Structures are given as C-alpha cells and as structure tokens.
Amino acid sequence: MVKQKNIGVNVVLNMILSLAGIAVGMITFPYFSRILLPEGMGTNSFITSFMNYFVLFANLGIPTYAIKECAKVKDNREELSATVQELYSINIVTSAIALSVYSLCIVFVPELKNFYLLAIIIGLGNITGVLNLQWLLQAMEDYKFIAIKNLSITIVAVILEFVFVKSPDDLFLYVLIGMAGVFLSNMTNIFYIKKYVDFRRTRKLKIARHFKPVLILFAMSVASSIYTNLDSVMLGFMRDNYTVGIYGASIKINRILVAVITSISAVLLPRMSRYFKENKMEEFNKLMARTVGIVVTLALPLILYFIIFAEDIILWLLGADYYESIVPMQVSIFIILFIGLSNLTGIQYMLPLGLEKHVMISVILGAVVDFVINIITIPPLGALGSAIATASAELTVLTYQLIILRKNITRIFSDLNWKFIILFTVICGGVLICMNIFVDLGYFLNSIINMGITAVLFIVISILTKNPIVDETLNILRLRKKTVKENSDETV
Questions:
Q1: In the chain, what is the straight-line distance between the N-terminal and C-terminal CA atoms, in Å?
Q2: For residues 169 and 204, is the Cβ–Cβ distance under 8 A?
Q3: Deepest in the core among 165, 276, 298, 434, taking most CB within 10 A?
Q4: How confident is the model at residue 492 (pLDDT cuts 50, 70, 90)?
C-alpha cells in the first residue's frame, strides 16, 4: 500500500514551486527582453504559441483525467500499471500525429520556415512535455520529488542562460538551453516512475474505456484555450498590436497570481478522487470546504494589494510605456478569486462526481460571454474592454458551476471565516489606501513596503480571528518537527 502523503505539505511544496517559477520569471524576463530585444522575444513567443495548439491536441485532456483515474487505483500496482500504459499509449499516438502535422507546418508556413531550427527545438521540447508522465507523480502525490527536480533543473538552466546568452544573436542558445532543461526534466520523470509502475504488459489493455471522458476533457480544454486567447486575437483584429501589448502586460501579471492560487487546489484532485471512490463523502466535503476557505483567504490580500498599488507595480515592473495597463489590471484582478474557486468547484469537485458535462458547459458559456462582451467593449474601451470581458467570462464559469452545485453550496463554503474576511478588508484596505495617498517613496519602495504591511496584517488578523490557515500552517510545522525527530531517533 502506498503511504498517504500529508496534503498540507503537498500544498506548501506546490506553492513553493509556483512561487519559485514566478521568481525566476521576474528575474529572467526583464533581463532577456533587453538582451534579445522585442524581435527575438517575439519570435520565441510566436513559435511557442503556435506549437501550443499542437500540444493541446497531443495532451487530449489526459493529464486531468489521468490524475483522477490513477489516484483511484494507486494502492494496486498491477491496476495502476495497466491504467498508465493505456493512457500513455493514447498520448504516444496523439503526440506522433501532432508532431507530424507540426513538421509539415515548419515546411510550408513561411513564418516557421524562416526559423526552422528554433521551430524544431521548440516542437521537440514541448512534445516531450506531453510524454513526461507528470500526471502519474501528481496522482501519487509525490510533490517532494516534483519540487526538488524542477527547481534543480530550472536553476541550472537559468545559470547557463545568463552565462551564454549575451546578444540578440544568441536567441538560438536561449531556446536550446530552455528546451534542454525541459527535456531533461521530462526524461527524469520517465526513469523515476518505475518506483510506482511496471511497463511490462500483464493483461490486455482496455484503451477504449478512456475515450469518452478524455474527449470530454479535451473539448473543455479546447473551449478554455479559445476564450483565454480570444481577447488578444480580437484586440489584434479590432484595434492594433499596441493595444494587444497593453492588455497582455496586465493579464500576464494576473495570470501569474492565478497560478499561485490554483497551485493549492492542484494537489487535491488525487485525494478527492480517492475519497469519492471509497465513498468517504464526509472527508470529501470537508477537504473541499477547507480548501475553499484557504483560497478565499489568500486571494483577498492579493486583490486588495494589486488594486490599490497597480500603478506602482506596473511602473516598477514594466515601465512608463505600459501605463495604460493599470486600469485593465485592476479590473481583471478579480479573476484570481473567480478562477481559484471555479478550479475547485469544477476540476476538483465536479469531476470526481462525474459532472464533466457541466464543467464543459460552464467553459463554453464563458467563451460565449467573453466573445459577446469583447465585441461590444473593444471598440470604445480597447484593452479595458477585454479586461471586463475576461472577468465577466470567469465569473460566468463560476456562477454556472455553483448553480449546478446549489444543493452543496452551504457545505462547500462552510469553512469561510467571515470575521477574517470583513476585518482584513476594512483594516488592510484602509491602511493601504492611506499609504497610497500620503506616502510616496518611489515605485519600488512603495511596492515592497506595502507588500510587507499586507503580509504582517494578514498574519496578525489571521491569528486574532483564528483563521483556519493558521491551523494548517501549524499542522505542517508540527509534522515537520515530528519527522525531523523521528529521523534523528532512527539515526541514533
């Protein structure tokens, strides 16, 4: 039987990994943007974006589905091995098809043909990402290995990029080092998973049983991909590339913050699928309620901070050229909460309950709302119009999911600490507004000092209101202390 991991530790490990990724991006993006210039960064971005459509097909919705299915049979090595073989076989076929069509595009599409070496490297690197079996490690809740491996390889790759990339002519080296890191990370997974599964076939594979749920999730991925990229496409057609850049800067910061919040819920799917299979509905609902409370608790300070200090943050990180990104960022910042909750209600709650169809409907509705509001608001408002459309689309997704789960809403939100929510909003909001009005130490110091104030108020008010997140942190620290003590005793 596989030893059950502590879910609090997994949450922390996944958050550390997400925050490390953000930190690396904050360090490398400004530097290499200046080294490679807009043309170099744009070339890399264009080819990667183009390749992402083929990655979408190659994945075929398998990662999310695979986490759920593998978690159900994680204690049965034979059953787990068969499930992995079945899903991996599908991935191999779809990846081969995607890579073949992508190769034809390199030959016949001039924008790719002109940079065929870059296109080949980016294509191979991304396709190996589809075949890395990361979903198995997530199903086994082995976030310690994921965190250590990814952080180690990322640090080495970044160091090599800083050493060798010195001019716009080094774009090829920049891409090669990045993709080599991705390839190494993926291949490490392949060798490591032998710890959990066997690849020798012990029974006839039942691949067909996965087609229906996988295709439903694939349709969801396609719909989601369409509307998450729709804003930039419509802005490009209805306005100009400058407006696309303004919107892209604002939404990129918010998407990074979304990644921090969703990293918490990413560790839940294996455990919730397992609870559902074992009919442990009380544990299933408690885990959901606890995590909803944590997501709301963490989203609140981010929303307050980035609304009030949007100007300082934009001018500090991006410069005066992106001044028009301030208001779009303030409007779209609410997607942190909307996506954080819909990720829980949809992916973590509805999927284990077999409600894939309704998750797909919610995403389609979001795409429709996004398209309609963009049509109406882009001509007069530009980037701000797309920000309104994005926030509205994500709210629509969440609202539909809550309507479907209306009988369970009280249970889902039972762990919210309203004392913390009200007190923190009033006290922290008031303090930050006063700091913004009366204190001006420059963009950088304003951002850093007020970030510290937000963190201190968050901790103090959490303790005073007995916020559950305090208990979660203390539990993790106690577990860590216990583990260290046990290891020390074993050594003695």
A1: 28
A2: no
A3: 165
A4: very low
